[in-house]
Amino acid sequence: MNIALAQLNYHIGNFEVNKKKIIQAINHAKDLKADIIVFAEMAICGYPPRDFLEFDDFIEQSNAALQNIAKECDNIAAIIGAPRFNYERKGKKLFNSAFFIADKKIHNIIDKTLLPTYDIFDEYRYFEPNNKFKIIEYQKQKIAITICEDLWNINDDGIYQINPMEALFSMQPDIIINIAASPFSYSQEEERKKILISNVKKYHIPLIYVNHIGAQTEMLFDGGSMAIDLNGLIVEELAYFKEDLQICSLEKLIYSPKEIKIANNKPDKIKKIHDALVMGIKNYFEKQGFQKAILGLSGGIDSAVVLALAVEALGNKNVLAVMLPSQYSSSHSITDAKQLVETLNVKYEIINIQPVVDGFLNTLSPIFKDLPSDVTEENLQARTRGVILMALSNKYGSILLNTSNKSEIAVGYGTLYGDMCGGISVIGDIYKTEVYQLAQYINKDEEIIPQNIILKPPSAELKPNQKDTDTLPDYDILDKILYKYIELRQGPNELIKAGFDKTLVHKILKMVNTNEYKRYQTPPILRVSPKAFGMGRRLPIVAKYLS
Amino acid sequence: MNIALAQLNYHIGNFEVNKKKIIQAINHAKDLKADIIVFAEMAICGYPPRDFLEFDDFIEQSNAALQNIAKECDNIAAIIGAPRFNYERKGKKLFNSAFFIADKKIHNIIDKTLLPTYDIFDEYRYFEPNNKFKIIEYQKQKIAITICEDLWNINDDGIYQINPMEALFSMQPDIIINIAASPFSYSQEEERKKILISNVKKYHIPLIYVNHIGAQTEMLFDGGSMAIDLNGLIVEELAYFKEDLQICSLEKLIYSPKEIKIANNKPDKIKKIHDALVMGIKNYFEKQGFQKAILGLSGGIDSAVVLALAVEALGNKNVLAVMLPSQYSSSHSITDAKQLVETLNVKYEIINIQPVVDGFLNTLSPIFKDLPSDVTEENLQARTRGVILMALSNKYGSILLNTSNKSEIAVGYGTLYGDMCGGISVIGDIYKTEVYQLAQYINKDEEIIPQNIILKPPSAELKPNQKDTDTLPDYDILDKILYKYIELRQGPNELIKAGFDKTLVHKILKMVNTNEYKRYQTPPILRVSPKAFGMGRRLPIVAKYLS
Q1: For chain A, does the N or the C end have fewer beta carbons within 10 angstroms?
Q2: pLDDT for the residue A259
Q3: Cα gap B372→B175, rounded to integer Å
């Protein structure tokens, strides 16, 4: 039995485009003599559709596309994910389902049992969990169809009461097929392989896994669909960050030669982040129907890295870099930025913001009178830049890329409506120390980002001789505390026990918590870590905990 | 048996303040000879704590506060809500629990069974549902303790598989006590009374209901705690939008005189919205530690209504109104605005934005050259206003109130980083047609908002002779379509079937969907409807459905 793994980039709610892609893949698989083709979870509508699921019309459109797709399935079976109405029993209105199609008909439906409702996931918001298990028989093979999370309670020690594979295993399947919508984070590939191989080894059944690729706003899908043989060896591994379709025979998964090794070694975290961000930018523009990007280039490392990524994603012709010096900008800021745009062969503009900043100060002087300068005047500069960048973005129909990093977003070291503007935040899930690693990665073959940008001490350049360290601790200490607080959810006592200075811990945690109001208005942030700001981290603005 | 209903305004994560309030209420109830005092769901930590629940430290602090509170419970029992660790069984890490305290000890714990995970609620994200039922015996009375949603599957026809009251009823309780965190919407009071009275009538058991009051950022709690007698009559109804503590005897609930009528008639929707918004503003400032507000006063109805509400919430001395005319501002805009600030006795500034706008245009002219004027120049004006308002807010340590209404937020008729700036959106959940009703309500006793502001056609005044209706249909048609799409989740076919013009329906739905990117960066919006923009409505930015 030949199984095709179809790893595609879907567009949420774009039923026409998704249907066309799916039918093309079916025809391609027929040409390759596949007996079955497997698509991802929620392939027909794209993932995550979120509250579109509350519209009956949306489900009906998905159903209609499914019927059209079924008609193409002659001489091939298909397994494909889509939402469906719950007509069977009490509970939520929908199931998250896998449809088994053969002879142009839907022969069977499997519903998802384990519904992730943590981090970015909200599946219990929409779906009723399955509680009845069955095996699909096709061409004398017994197939255990599972949907993503259904395989993740392997050790039966997690947040779920049951492990669906236990029930399915008792029915003696010949193969496990898992259709997934498993978003990228830099640790996800390793984690995913560990879980899938554990399932294979525990049940001694080969496994086919099909994931999405592509970006859905902030959520990135890396693909990495795979086939794992009886012995737990990955015998087929599809591309990362690219559409792919491969055929694998069930026989190969049962009698595979022992010498095949696991395809990948431990994946390179920074390379993966890099590839994910490039895809994230590219897909955001493509799916929103935009070609051109604009960004403010300060001469610092953050905007330099974002520019390099944008050029890779969109092409140098489609990116406009804007330098916006003020009276506090150092001369090297412009020369470093110029060197970068010349290396990347990107169009640029230099716009002196001082006249407008002075205009604001003049306008405000009858009110401010002799009040001393403070953060107001710093923010004014950042906001003047924001207005100019947004004006260029409006006039040219381009999207402004936000260049804030995760460290500064965490502690609120940025100006709302100033440098926090943008349609999408490219490196908002990358700590400052990781931004440097990303710069080194970008420079691995040649010096794209000038060494001077990498070496100089970070500064917002909003007042004379300003340095980030005037306000913040060194980034390697800051980032360690932030990582433990944000990613690991460690509280102050654990942090202090780990050896961090008590005063510093309380200062940083307070900064993180009291700046929730700024993050509420941040652009969507491309998610590359297991805990990014955005939908995956939900905190009240008004609160007193640790602040 | 005398039962005290303690309806308090908690501050999320502020364990010291919450504990103090709770202990004060316990002492007050002791003075009133109460046998039991009942607090709301999650009273100790405040609701909703969201992802703070993922921090062990947060739960430990809550536990510590609970232990301190228990020590005060001599000669009185207490029922109080708090999260607790799930040590008992597999599943999520926490339970959402009601603690029964007597003789200074925790005697019993009841966990919540039905965990709302729709609209603004995310309870299944954190909590394992209860599946074992028990009755608490105290002073020979059998008490069925339920937590909020536990009573809401009364007809057993909803999104849940079970109805906890069925199990509890079989144990023959004498009284039902429901501790709740039931957020306000303009239809919630009616809905809540209907559900609670249905429970009483179905089981023929009296009921005590204790809710929160106060605002938690966008989420508003109206209170309205109550005691319902055997016959389904509300014999005690606590204040709305105010802290309150009342005593009710169980005897009264069993032998109440028949002539008591349900306290309220159908509540006045606009009055409720008004009171909710005033509380929302007031609490946002108090809990964030701010006194002073600022807002841009355009001469239009939206900012006029927000100003009137802000003055009521914060006092006229604490609000600064700023008029920001440009070359396109009509003369009546300033005169109308002046009349309003004089009536309200509010300090104001008039700042002509034209010099700064011209400064931006000069700065941009070498780049824009002869490109025709478009939305860019309109946005420039709105953003110049935004920068000036934020500068004043920074300099004076005040919070900028956002004045966008729900109709314009829905269709994207506003400028990101311009008129969409602000710390909190006051009327972002009020359709334009409701803004007029709110203005009439504010004017019910005397003319606060000048008639001219109410009567003139809405205009953004960003280009000559602009009217909202140049771009949008009449608001009474627009708002009807928006309500059906947003609140009722009706799709295009249902809308067209209801008689709306097909082209118009598609145009409006497309505007709503393609402007999700703007709403992502909107300030938090005080929630008064059953479906507000924000956490309760989660939609992808990149999507093609109906756009």
Answers
A1: C
A2: 56
A3: 72
Q: Which of B 216-245 lie inside 8 A of A, CB atoms?
A: 216-217
- Per the structure block, which two tokens stand in for B299? 């001469």
Structure tokens at A154: 């392997």
CA–CA distance from B400 to each of A40, A517, B177, B296, B321 (Å)? 46, 12, 41, 8, 10
Question: Contact at 8 Å (CB) between B15 and B47?
Answer: no
Which residue do the tokens 């245009």 mark? B361
Which amino acid makes up residue A342? E
Q: Do A542 and B54 touch (CB under 8 A)?
A: no
Determine the Cα angle at A427 with ends A422 and A428, to 5°: 70
Partners of residue B127 on adjacent β-strands: B94
Say if residues A221 and A183 touch (Cβ distance below 8 Å): yes
B137: which DSSP letter? E
Strand segments (E) across A132-287: 136-138, 141-147, 175-179, 207-210, 213-216, 219-222, 226-228, 234-237, 244-249
3-class secondary structure, A249: strand
Cβ burial of B507 (10 Å; 0-12, 13-18, 19+) is middle
Residue B277 to residue B426: CA distance in whole angstroms = 7
Residue B56 is nearest to which of A58, A383, A491, comparing CB atoms? A491
3-class SS string, A312-338? HHHCHHHEEEEECCCCCCCHHHHHHHH
Q: What is the pLDDT of residues A437-472, one digit of tens each?
A: 999 999 999 999 999 999 999 998 888 888 888 889
pLDDT in tens, B289-328: 999 999 999 999 999 999 999 999 999 999 999 999 999 9
pLDDT digits (tens, 9 = 90+) for A174-183: 999 999 999 9
3-state secondary structure A111-140: ECCCCCCCCCCCHHHCECCCCCCCCEEECC
B191-205: average pLDDT: 96
Residue in B73, B148, B248, B421 annotated catalytic: B148
Query: Minimal CA–CA distance to B447: which of B339, B309, B312?
Result: B339
What's the pLDDT at A260? 55
Are A263 and A233 in contact by the 8 Å Cβ rule? The answer is: no
Which of B458-493 are b and which e, b meaning 16 or more Cβ less than 10 Å from the residue's Cβ? bbbbbbeeeebeeebbebeebbbbbbbbbbebbbbe
Q: How far apart are CA B344 and CA B449, in angstroms?
A: 9
Closest by CA to A79, choosing from A141, A126, A146, A124, is A146
Q: Among residues B417, B424, B381, B370, which one has the least CA distance to residue B402?
A: B424
Give the ipTM of the model, two decimals please: 0.96
Q: Mind listing the pLDDT tens digit for each residue in B356-394?
A: 999 999 999 999 999 999 999 999 999 999 999 999 999
Q: Are A425 and A435 in contact (CB under 8 A)?
A: no
Kindly tell me if the per-residue pLDDT of A262 is higher than 60: no
How close B250 gets to chain A, by Cα (Å)?
A: 35
Q: How many CA atoms lie within 13 A of A151 on its CB side?
A: 30
| Substitution target from A10, A286, A363, A390 for chain B, most B beta carbons within 10 A | A363
* CA-wise closest residue to B208 among B34, B412, B440: B34
CA B388 to chain centre: 29
pLDDT of B80-93, one tens digit each?
A: 999 999 998 889 99
d(CA B526, CA B401): 11
- Count Cα neighbours of A515 within 13 Å in the Cβ-side half-sphere: 21
Q: How far apart are the first and last CA of chain A?
A: 60
Give the pLDDT band (50/70/90) at residue B128: very high
B148 an active-site residue? yes
DSSP structure string for A33-73: T-SEEE--TTTTT-S--GGGGG-HHHHHHHHHHHHHHHTT-
Alpha carbons within 13 angstroms on the beta-carbon side of residue B19 total 16
